[in-house]
Specification:
The protein is an alpha+beta fold. It is built from eight helices and 17 strands. It has one domain: Double-stranded beta-helix. The model has no long low-confidence stretch (mean pLDDT about 90). Bound molecules: fe (ii) ion.
């Protein structure tokens, strides 16, 4: 039952209308960051699941069971009046916008369709679930009006910089909490509000990469021998340091879970040759694999298993490109809950 490829899930017009009604309901309610929306999203997802045909259910069930790579939802309704603006509006305005809440709510319902719950980390995105992915801070192909060439650009989804292949941080653990930290997201879901140049999102399924590691390499990658640099957009206690951790973790359900960033991870200083060789092998295998490309638009969304799949993108070309992202936890993930509704967990 192991799925090596992302699965396209096309909604029919009846399903799309149901989902549209659900998104409008949740958006008017305030979207994912409003108390009470989570239970509504769960109910709408259950109603949508009942309308799926056998093939669609099989794709969803595979993801629920932990054997998915990604689900590519297509043929969803859009807000016809939401045209691409001349320039990207301010982040604060976009957050409140009904079209943003509509798409964020749709992401939340689709997460619930695979029995994942949306959440936010306390150390990221001001503890909000809805993350707007756009070039607000510079670093894109075209400079922002106030951007200086000499500016140090943040390596995050609020900038236009190229983001190499990675899973979403934090990287402490994958399923159960460790050392006071919640697991990494089980999934992320992205949709586009504006993407007029059809700039793609890349993903790389990892099962075929992991299968090509030899036993010693896999063991080395499962040892706590790796460090990572923290994202500048994560807030944490100033004296907190990155702790050594593993990259690969056995998982009794899906076989393995991985936490990795091509541009943040490295072996800890003075690592053994086994560790550095294993790290190099992983890099080589990833570098020689061809990522899959998906062009997101308002009528599509890409749900990515963050324990089995890497994602990334090129430098942003059109500064109006705006994606909307939510994180999800599967039913077996046990985060440290700080606020149950809307769900906020300790990072
Ligand atoms: Fe990312």
């Amino acid at each position: 039952m192991i799925s090596a490829d992302p699965t396209a899930l096309h909604f029919n017009s009846h399903q799309a209308r149901l989902l549209d009604r659900a998104c409008k309901h949740l958006a008017v309610h305030g979207g994912p960051d409003t108390q009470g929306t989570a239970v509504l999203a769960r109910r709408w997802a259950a109603a949508l699941y009942k309308k799926l045909d056998a093939t669609q259910r099989a794709a969803v069930d595979t993801f629920v069971a932990g054997f998915g790579i990604a689900l590519y939802f297509q043929k969803m309704k859009i807000i016809e009046s939401d045209h691409t603006p001349d320039q990207l509006p301010a982040l604060s305005d976009l957050k409140r916008d009904l079209a943003t809440l509509y798409l964020a709510s749709r992401n939340q319902i689709l997460l619930n369709l695979v029995q994942h719950r949306s959440f936010a980390f306390d150390i990221d995105n001001q503890s909000k679930q809805v993350r707007l992915v756009g070039n607000f801070k510079g670093g894109g192909r075209v400079s922002l009006p106030n951007e200086k060439v000499t500016d140090q650009v943040e390596l995050s989804s609020h900038a236009g910089v190229c983001l190499g292949l990675h899973t979403e941080p934090p990287y402490y653990c994958a399923i159960k909490p460790e050392a006071g930290h919640s697991p990494a997201p089980s999934s992320l879901i992205l949709t586009a509000r504006w993407n007029i140049l059809n700039e793609p999102t890349r993903i790389l399924p990892l099962p075929s990469v992991v299968e090509r590691l030899n036993g010693i390499e896999a063991l080395s990658l499962a040892s706590p021998s790796f460090m990572y640099t923290r994202s500048e957009c994560l807030t944490a206690a100033p004296n907190e340091k990155s702790i050594p951790g593993s990259i690969l973790q056995p998982d009794s359900q899906s076989g393995f879970a991985i936490r990795f960033s091509a541009y943040r991870h490295s072996p800890i200083p003075h690592s053994s040759k086994l560790v550095t060789d294993a790290f190099r092998s992983l890099h080589t295998l990833i570098g020689s694999s061809r990522p899959l490309e998906y062009v997101l638009q308002p009528d599509s969304a890409l749900l990515i298993d963050n324990t089995r799949t890497l994602h990334g993108r090129d430098t942003v070309k059109d500064n109006r490109r705006l994606l909307i992202r939510l994180f999800g936890y599967c039913s077996t993930a046990t985060p440290i809950v700080l606020q149950p509704d809307p769900l906020v967990v300790r990072g």
